[in-house]
Design brief:
42% of the residues lie in helices and 23% in strands. It is built from 9 helices and 15 strands. The longest helix is centred in the middle third of the chain and has 44 residues, at 179-222.
């Protein structure tokens, strides 16, 4: 699998841009703020319907434009598939595959798979649990696009249930009747348990599959500085068996929600479910967060992304690997190890401020980027 053409209209700073790409490594070289990361961001958007840099679509549209369009031609098994995405902030986005409209943009998920590593990925290791939950969910969706709808359904239920908890709790504190609200809350409890169990089971399955791959990748990047651990920490508590059985997990969520009903009404938030969970990362006998050195955190973050690439490749269709401004942050030893590990992968897109930051084996094709102008060098 590889991207053969990328065309942008009013995306970020680009009024128009088009690049043709080949399998193997390609480097985009240019000073910071000139538009090189915008190119790989567009590739990632086609694969995930999200940006790795911002939470909303509005910043993706060039200032003064009403919409942005990303067109991406993907080659897989000798066949070309054209994906077109129209980004409309404040309105529904639209998508086409091979020039035919699809009912929902999420229908394009799975046409292109990417694994992106960027400096922001340090937050997976050092940051809040939300970063690690997002990492798991994005990988889960890349592997099985149906989980995009599962997560969207869970987020919708959670938002509605939290709103109901706030209103029911306020009514209870004001000594007004709350029977109707609580009866409605029972219905949303069922939805939370069902959708939460589906998302939780998927996460547990992905962690189990990923665990040995991360250990292997971290060892390769770091040069053998210790085994890694991935342990899923659930809001269901330590006594609940964490097995990917949807019915058992739904029953466990229901029981815990019932036990904490009073606390949830007092606080106006849902205290049980995948949105409260965490992925505990460790190196040797210690959790990485708070104990690992800066270099170890970099190696572990890289290991997580390389393991994700291996997992998706094993499912069929090697994903495009994107390394966004990574090499300037690495010491020479880790830089060389990473280059050796990724040079022979299917398609590798690299961005860097100066060409000297990129190992020679990763400069196959080269584009210079300056003031949102892209020029092929070789």
């Amino acid at each position: 699998m590889h991207v053969s053409k990328l065309a942008l209209t009013d995306f970020r700073g680009y009024a128009e841009a088009m690049v043709e790409l080949a399998p193997g490594p390609t480097a985009f070289i240019g000073p910071n703020g000139q538009g090189k990361t915008n190119l790989v961001e567009a590739v990632g958007y086609v694969a995930t319907l999200a940006s790795h840099r911002v939470a909303s679509d509005a910043p993706l549209v060039r200032q003064g434009a009403d919409r942005a369009v990303v067109r991406c031609e993907v080659q897989r098994d000798g066949r070309a598939t054209l994906v077109e995405l129209e980004i409309n902030p404040g309105k529904a986005n639209r998508a086409r595959i091979n020039r035919s409209p699809v009912p929902r943009p999420r229908e394009v998920l799975g046409v292109l798979r990417t694994v992106l590593f960027a400096p922001e990925d340090l937050a997976i290791v050092k940051g809040d649990p939300d970063s690690r939950r997002r990492f798991l969910d994005e990988l889960l969706i890349a592997r099985s696009p149906r989980y995009h709808a599962v997560r969207a359904d869970y987020d919708r239920v959670l938002k509605q249930r939290n709103s109901l908890l706030k209103s029911a709790g306020a009514a209870a504190r004001a000594a007004r009747g709350t029977g109707a609200d609580l009866r409605t809350l029972d219905v949303w409890d069922e939805h939370l348990a069902r959708h939460g169990a589906e998302l939780l089971a998927g996460r547990l399955e992905i962690v189990e599959t990923l665990r040995p791959l991360v250990d292997k990748a971290y060892d390769a990047v770091s040069g053998g500085s210790g085994p890694t651990g991935l342990d899923y920490k659930s809001s269901l508590g330590p006594d609940t068996p964490l097995v990917p059985d949807r019915d058992l997990l739904a029953a466990a969520i229901t029981a815990e929600v019932s036990r904490l009903r009073g606390q949830e009404l007092d606080r106006g938030v849902s205290l049980v479910g995948p949105h409260r969970d965490d992925l505990v990362l460790s190196i040797g006998d210690f959790p990485a967060r708070g104990y690992a050195s800066h270099g170890e955190c970099w190696s572990l973050a890289l290991g997580l992304r390389l393991a994700s690439h291996d997992l998706l490749a094993a499912d069929g269709g090697e994903p495009v690997l994107v390394l966004d401004d990574v090499f300037a942050e690495l010491d020479t030893r880790r830089r060389d190890r990473l280059a050796d590990l990724v040079a022979q992968r299917g398609q590798v897109l690299v961005t860097a401020a100066v060409v000297e930051d990129v190992p020679e084996q990763l400069i196959g094709g080269r584009f210079d980027v300056m003031a949102d102008e892209v020029t092929r060098v070789r």
